[in-house]
Every structure is written in C-alpha cells, then in structure tokens.
Amino acid sequence: MLGKSIKTASLAIAVLLLTTGCWDSVDIEDKDITTIVVVDKTVQGYSFTLEIASPKSGNAGGESGGSEEYTILKSEGSTYVEAREDLDRKADKPIYLGAVDSVILTDKLAYSGIEEYVYRLRETGEYRKMVGVVVTTACPEDLLNVKSEHNTGVGMAIEDTLKSLVNTGQSFHVSLGDILESLASPCKCFLLPCMAISDKEIALSGYSVFDCGTCIGFIPVKKSKGAIFLKAKYPKWDYVVPYENGSATVGISFRKKDIKPSYSDGKIRFDLDFYVDAKLRYTQNGKPVTDEMDRQIKVELQKMIYKELKDTVDASQQEYNCDYLDFFNVFRIAYPVAFRNMEWNQEYTKAEFAIQVKVDLETTGTLDYEPRIEH
Amino acid sequence: MGMFRTKYDKILNILKSKNSAITERTVAYCGGTVKLLYVKQLIDTNALAEQVVKPLVQYCSSAKAHLKAQHTVENIIYAIDCRIESEESKIESNILNGMAVILFSNDKHYITANLKKIQQRSIPIPEITYTMRGPRDCLVENLDANLSLIRYRLKDPNLRIDMFEVGKRTKTNVAVIYMRDIANDTAVKEIEKRISEISIDCIWGTGELQAFLQNNKHDLFPQLGTTERSDWACEAVIEGKALVLADGGQIGLIAPHTFGESLIACDDRYDNKFFGLFSRIIRYMALFLHLCLSSIYVALVSFHTDALPSAYAILLSQMRQKVLFSALVEVLVVEFIAELVRESLIRVPSKIGTAIGVVGTIVIGQAATAAGVFSPLLLIIVSASLLASFAIPDYFAAHPIRILRFLVIIMTGILGFYGFILALSLIITNLVSINSFGVPYMAPFAPFNPYDSVRAFLFSRSTSKKRQQFMRAKDDTRTDDNRRSSKKK
Predict the structure, then answer these.
(1) B417 and B298 within one domain
(2) Mean of pLDDT values over A30-51
(3) Which residues pair with B303 in a beta bridge?
(4) Distance from CA of B376 to the nearest CA of A (A)
C-alpha cells in the first residue's frame, strides 16, 4: 500500500517537474548584462544605447579576479519596438536588463514625452521597479565614453554618484516605481535628476520638471535646495552665513518638517513648519561667538532657508504650474472628498503657503583659537 | 549413577554432538556424579575452578549423602550469581549464554552459575560527539558495562531497567531504561511494545534496533536520538525519556526525540547559557546553509539574477565565464565529489584520510578551478556547506539533510526559487507531521510552546525549574523547594 502511494507520488512529482520546469532558463554568463540604457529621441524615431558588461574570466591560476570591460551597443527604430528588435538582432546573447542601474533619458526625449516609454518599462517587467531614472543633457555616446574615477561602468558611476548624494542628504532618489506612481496620481508631476558631463566627469546638474510625462523645465542644482529640503529624507547642507564682521560656516540638518493643510471656503492653505538643527562649524576670523553673533547668525540662517523654500514653492506655483513637490499627498489624506472633486493642478497654483523656519543653533564645541592662559 | 544415565545421558549426547565447543567436567563421589557443562570461551575458567570445581571436589571427597542442587548452592559453591532450574530444554541456551550448568545425578534440578567472561573494550573516549568540558566516558558494546555507567550516575531508586531479549538466533539483550516517576508511561509502553514485537533472527546493536522502533519503516528523519556518551544518556533519562541500550552496540537510543534536540551539543550544558545561545544560533544557521546554500547559488545563477545587485551579477558572470557546465550540473557534480571525499575520509584509516584530503583539495580546489571546470565561488559555497554539516552535533541527524539537499538542488534547478520554496515546504510539512512516540517532532516550535521555545535556545538548568513541557513528563519539575541536597556526614 505504502509502496504504491510512494510510486504514485514520485510519478506525479516527476511528471509535474518535467512538464512545468523552467527548462529555458539561461545561466548568468550566457546573458548580456546591461548596466545602463540610454533612450534618445532621434530623427528616425527612437534609439537605445546600452552599456553591456563584458566580464573577462579571472579563473586562470585561481589568482586574478578578472576584469570588467564594457561594450556599447546602439540600435534605432521608428518605434520603441523596432528599436528593441534592432537591438536584439545586434546582441550576441539575450539582453539582460535586471542589472540595469540607471535608465537615462535624453533631454530631447524628455521634452517630447516619456510616458509611453515608462509604460513600456512597466509592461515588459525586465527592469527592477527600483531602477533609477535620470535625464541627461549629454549625447548618449559622449556620456557612455566618460571614464569614471573608479574605472567602473557609466551605469555604476551614475548610480554611485546619486547614491552618495542621497546618503549625504543632498539629493533624492527617483525610481521607475516612483514615476509610475506619479503618473497614476491626479497630479502627474515629478522631478527627475539630471546628469551632465562637467569637466569630463558625470555630475548632477539639476532636476528636470515633468508634467504628465513631458519635461516642462529645468531647475539648476544651485536653485534646487528648496526642492531637496521638501523631497529628501534627511537633507543636510552647509551654509556660509554672513554676520556683522564676517561669516560663519554652519551645518544644518532637518529635525522635523511639519506640513499642515487646511481647506475652507474653497481656499487651500499649507502651513509649513521646518525645525532645523544647526551647528556652527567655524567662523571666518576664528573669534569666539558672542551672544549677539549667535543671534545674527540664527536670524540670517532662518532668512536664507526661508528664501530657498519660498522660491521653490513660488516656482512650482507660478513658473511651472504643477505640484512636483508632492503637496497633494498631504492634502489628499486630510481632505479626501474635496480632493476628489477638484482639479488639483489648477487649485494648487492658488494655494496659500505660510512658511516658518525655526533654527536651533549650537555654537559650543568649536575651537578657541585665542585661548587665555591663566597663571 | 543410574538416575544420571536415564535423566541426562540423552541430553548430553545431543549437546555434544551438536556443539563440540561444550566442555564437560565430571566430579565423582561415592553416591553419584556431578557434571559441569560450559563453553570454555565464554567462561571465566579461573572463577569456575576457584568458585565451583574446587569446593565441589573438596566436598565430594568426603561426601556421604547424595548431592542436591539446593544444598550445593547454599553450602558448597562460592559463585555469586547462581540459579536453580529444572527445565531441560533451557540447558543448551544457558550454556550458550555463557553460564556454567551443573547437573546432579541424583537431582532433577540443576544449577546455572553466571561466570561469563566477555572480551570488551575499556571505556572509550567520545569519537562522534567530542566535548571540551563534559565527561568523556562513553558507552561500550557490553550492556552490563553500560548499565554500570548509568547506575554510577543515577542513584535514584526510581531508575527502572526493563530487559528484553531480541533476535531469534542472537538473543541480544536489550535494556529500556527510564525514571519510573518522571517518564511518560505512554511513550515507555510504546517503546517496550515495539521492542517486544520485533521478530527477526538477529540484531547486532542499537543501530539495527532503531529501524524497528521508527513509526514508519520508510521515514527519513530519525525519531530516536542517538548518543555514545553516558552522561548524555543519563541526561535523557532524567528529562523523562527512555534510553534503549543493546548488547553489542556502543550507541544508546533516546526516545522520544525531537528535531531541535539534534542541534543540542553536550557542551551546551556546561557552557555559559549565552554562549550556548550563540552556538545554537550558529548551528541553526549551519543547518540552513547545509540544506540551502548550493540551491540558492543555482537559483541566482540560472533564474533570479535580478535579485543580485548589478555589481555582484557582473562578478558572478565573470567567475563563470569559462565554466563548462550549467549551474545545476556544476553544483550536482561538485556536491557529488564533496560527498565522495567525505565518504572516503570516513571509511579509511586516518593516515590515508589525510592523503585523500590533500588530493581532494588539490584536485578540486586548484586544478578544477584553474582548468575552468568549476566556478571558484561554487567551491567556496560547497566547502562552506560541507563545513556547516559538521556543525550539526548529532552526526546521524545530519544524514537526512545530506540527502534532502540534493532534492532541494534538483527542484531549484528545475523551477528556480519556486522549486526551492516548494522543496522546503515539502520538507517542513514532513517534519511537522511526524511524531516521536507521541511527541511532535518539531516541538517546541510546532506546536508552539513559549516556555520550551525560549529554552531551546537559551537553556540553563539553574533558570529552568520545569522540564520540557512537550515531553508531558509525570514529574515536570526539576527542583523541589522543600528539599535541599543532603550533606554528607
């Protein structure tokens, strides 16, 4: 009896495995591991430029770790499908997009619209949802020929640069999933980091503003602090704050940001309260900080941060007319019914903002350059 | 003389014709004869001469009345372990059991004197379960010696030893040892029932006995624990389990037994409890690694490369550039070679074993990677997996994992992580559905018991006043507040 049931079970398992097994699986070394995809808008239609890792075996003698080389593969077509088919025809092995660090969209494509491509990415499922998406002002070939300082591929260099900026609180990460989320929301506005070639290095040059999947403007990196304050998780900056007889360098980090929406008589209002921890690093002349200096630095710093925030909010309301700072999320939670019945982008431009910045300045712990020696 | 001829002549003739090893010694006196029958190889001949023959001869030289068995036991021979019997059919088995049988011409009763002398090893040190701080006396093949080791540690009057004879031809003595006031009666009865139901011609030790005591003869996971250490055997008895020992086997069987207990080492009882926790976490991880590491490699290389950061994906691809086989075949081949090396090392003398180890290392480690036959990463993985298997304290409990690893690898190679999870689910389902003499095999985790689960990792006798709850022991307390250890005067 037992023997029979074991035979039946074994047969069933064997048949199941033989008929449903993933026998078409391809081992990792038999794939073209792509680290970066640059999508461009061309005269013909679209082009894909891929950076493919061509690892050389490091097994010989069991000592060397091998080396990585990257090859560039380019394809063109009047549609994304044709461009991809062209790419497949040129590739030696199946193209593997699961290891793509960044999808780069050229500014030409960004201004003509990326919505279709984003939906294509969602449907193919070849990319990770967390893959970073950035815009570039450089031409794809130039971008992919830049040598990174650690001799890694351009994909990794861009990913590392962005990761480093996010970790130090000077930028924010935008993934494919975030873009899909934004496009699915009533707001449809978002920011994408923009990378450019600066002094033969790839650097963050600013943020492209998108509305309904089309780029409508660009915020240079010097004017992007306010946006980073609002969108980054732990923003941190150093400010050079002028005071009566010099300037002080102050490091700031955001302790808390409190965004309170209110809605009455058809008017939207946001109260933005920012609590900032500031730490005096050093003063220009090395003199100890007096109470008066402390007050001056604090006031000046509050003004500077306020201005950054005010300019950012004003730009989104007046210049771009879209809520790429994601205020709609807070409002939607507080007033779901009102939000459903309104055209958010129109209402947002009329919203009133009250910004308050509270700075806690710590001046202790700095070096005293003129110590008094008591005998 | 006449009575002796009529009563025993026939039996003596049969015995001697059947078995030439049986020795006969006759002591005559004026009223009759006394015959001693024994197997020289099984008897302590010095003891026989001093304790039986010498007093008999001395007595017979002046004997006037007929000698009787009762009188002989009480007044003549010095042997300590004597029995008076009358069943003729048992004479042969008694002699073959190492007894000296004394027949009287004028008495229908006879005497069996236990003067067994069996060649045995001295008490060995542990070979399978090495210990740093624990005692090192281990069980041997002689049941009496093993029982003396148990008795030496457990001086409790409630210690009970039930004896059984198993094997039609070997008549192997089997002892079931338990604490009458602690052990769960149901479990003990079940063990004894299964032992008494064994119908086989021979049993050479507890290893074979274990197969008869399993719930299901085809079960892969052992439902009885094993130990070679006498202190661990006593620990099991104290915890309310039954210890099964058999003549000819140096391994004791412990029942009921749970899966988690296979991961407890003897030293855990002697170490700091936090180090015990640390060791057990490592062992659970070792178990997981041993079972899953190679399969995860197959899944990542062949199916789910996107689960790796891109830098690792490139590195992995780089390592496998020159590899000839697909990931599944490569893993199966390397695992097979690793098993081959392990099996060879166990079966050969230690001096040759070192050579095999060197050959294995050089051939597999150096030449194979240099030739690009195998990926260096896979060799690291298989070596780690092999090392992990040695971290499982119960050597025999790791055997099912060794086999199931191949199932997990093959299912992962066919279905990716889906197959991996499917294989693990099958294994876990099997584990939670079996029981060891009424105790769930995955206790205390399934069914979950917070008290026992904590102590499965963090155990110290000083902080565990109650025994393991899943054992359902009659007396589940370890301490008695009203009693203090008696002071020796």
Answers:
(1) yes
(2) 92
(3) none
(4) 7
Shared domain for B430 and B284, answered yes or no, is yes
CA distance B363 to chain A (A): 13
Looking at beta carbons, which residues of chain A come within 8 Å of B295? none
Looking at chain A from residue 334 to 373, which residues have their Cβ under 8 Å from any Cβ of chain B? none
Whether B377 is covered by a domain: the verdict is: yes
Which CATH fold would you assign to the domain A224-375? GMP Synthetase; Chain A, domain 3 (3.30.300)
Same domain, B157 and B247: yes
Structural domain span for residue B206: 143-257
- Cα nearest neighbour of A19 on chain B: B414
Q: Alpha helices of B35-153 — where are they, by DSSP H?
A: 45-48, 54-61, 69-75, 91-96, 143-153
Residue pairs spanning A and B at CB distance below 8 A:
100
Residues B28-54: tens digit of each pLDDT: 887 788 889 998 888 888 889 999 999
Q: Which one of B318, B320, B404 makes the best mutation probe of the A interface by having the most chain A beta carbons within 10 Å?
A: B318
Contact A56 B318 (CB under 8 A): yes
The DSSP H or E segment spanning A167 is: helix A154-167
> What pLDDT, in 10s, does the model give residues A312-336?
999 999 999 989 999 999 999 999 9
Q: Which residues pair with A256 in a beta bridge?
A: A275
Length of chain B: 489
Q: Does the complex come out with an ipTM higher than 0.85?
A: no
Q: Is A103 on the interface with B (CB under 8 A)?
A: no
Please check whether residue A232 is in contact with residue A172, taking contact to mean a CB–CB distance below 8 angstroms.
Answer: yes
| CA neighbor of A32 nearest in space, from A72, A81, A86 | A72
* CA nearest neighbour of A292 among A246, A343, A233: A246
- B342 three-class SS: helix
* Cα A293 to Cα A289: distance, rounded to the nearest angstrom: 6
- Check: CB of residue A226 under 8 Å from CB of residue A309: yes
**Record: contact A62-B370, CB cut-off 8 A:** yes
Do B346 and B235 fall into the same domain?
Answer: no
Residues B400 and B283 in one domain: yes
- Do the chains contact at B313 and A60, CB–CB below 8 Å? no
Residues B248 and B217 in one domain: yes
- Cβ partners under 8 Å of residue B338, min gap 6: B364, B382, B383, B385, B386
- Going by C-alpha positions, the residue among A227, A231, A185 that lies closest to residue A328 is A185
Give the C-alpha separation, A310 to A352, whole Å: 11
Residues B213 and B243 occupy one common structural domain: yes
The pair phi, psi for residue B167, each rounded to 5°, is 100, 115
Which of A17, A56, A96 faces B414 most closely, judged by CB atoms?
Answer: A17
Domain membership of residue B136 (yes or no) is no
* Whether B392 and B324 share a structural domain: yes
* B102 and B109 Cβ atoms separated by less than 8 Å: no
End-to-end C-alpha distance for chain B, whole angstroms: 60
How far out from the chain centre does Cα B342 lie? 22
Q: Do B302 and A59 touch (CB under 8 A)?
A: no
Write down the pLDDT at residue B157.
87
Test A62 with B327 for CB contact under 8 angstroms. no
Q: How confident is the model at residue B13, as a pLDDT?
A: 79
Q: Is residue B450 part of a domain?
A: no
Residue A359 pairs in a beta bridge with A276
In whole angstroms, give the CA distance from residue B83 to residue B101.
Answer: 10
Spatial neighbors of A179 by CB under 8 A, at least 6 apart, are A118, A133, A190, A192
pTM: 0.79
Domain range summary for chain A, segments of one domain joined by +: 27-223, 224-375
Please name the residue of chain A whose CA is at the shortest distance from the CA of residue B367: A61
Report CB contact under 8 Å: A22, B301: no
The count of structural domains within chain B is 3
Residue B273: inside a domain, yes or no?
Answer: no
Q: CA A9 → CA A2, B216, B401, B417, distances in Å? A: 10, 17, 20, 22
Q: Three-class SS of residue A70?
A: strand
Q: What is the distance between the alpha carbons of residues B150 and B267, in angstroms, rounded to a whole number?
A: 19
